[in-house]
Amino acid sequence: MLISSCGGSEDPIKLFENGEYDAAFKLFSQQAASGDVQASNYLGMHYYLALGVARDFNRAAALFEIAALAELPNAQRNLGIMYLRGLGVEKDFHQAYGWFFAAHAGGNIGSKEYLDLMVDNVTPNASGIARKNIRQKIAAHAAASLLPEPTSAH
User: Fold this and answer.
1) What is the pTM for the complete model shown?
2) CA 134, 135, 136, 137 torsion: positive or negative?
3) Is residue 110 within 8 Å of 77, Cβ to Cβ?
4) Low-confidence ranges of the chain (pLDDT < 50)
5) Domain ranges within the chain, ordered by starting residue
6) CB within 8 A of 140, min separation 6: which ones?
7) Closest CA to 104 of 80, 121, 128
8) What was the pLDDT predicted at 1?
9) Superfamily assignment of 9-145 in CATH?
10) Which of 11, 70, 81, 145 is the least crowded, having the fewest Cβ atoms under 10 Å away?
């Protein structure tokens, strides 16, 4: 994920990791506007942690959801945290569990701790329903992404 500028290239992830949040935010914004879901997840982290921008849990949750629906495991975990804590979204243990499960299935090892934490909040039957609901959301998003753009009549 490199952006070229003025004969050089800047990696917004490196900028983010080095604490250069304003520069990282600018590059991630450009990438997210072009459909880069990893950039959307990083923008969500900017808003969640108030790094170079004002804290905005609603915006963070919306950005995490964009990337989570595109099956980015880190974003799925991040969105699960938002549902678990009720930040930017209504608190919903079932949604949280479903997103944590999707993240774990996608390879996000940090989501396992959250799944273990949720064992007292979601019954086995409800966990199966939550997993199914998230799979359906992801599938509906993928199907909608394949639809042609509507044309406007002149």
Assistant:
1) 0.88
2) positive
3) yes
4) 1-8
5) 9-145
6) none
7) 80
8) 43
9) Tetratricopeptide repeat domain (1.25.40.10)
10) 145
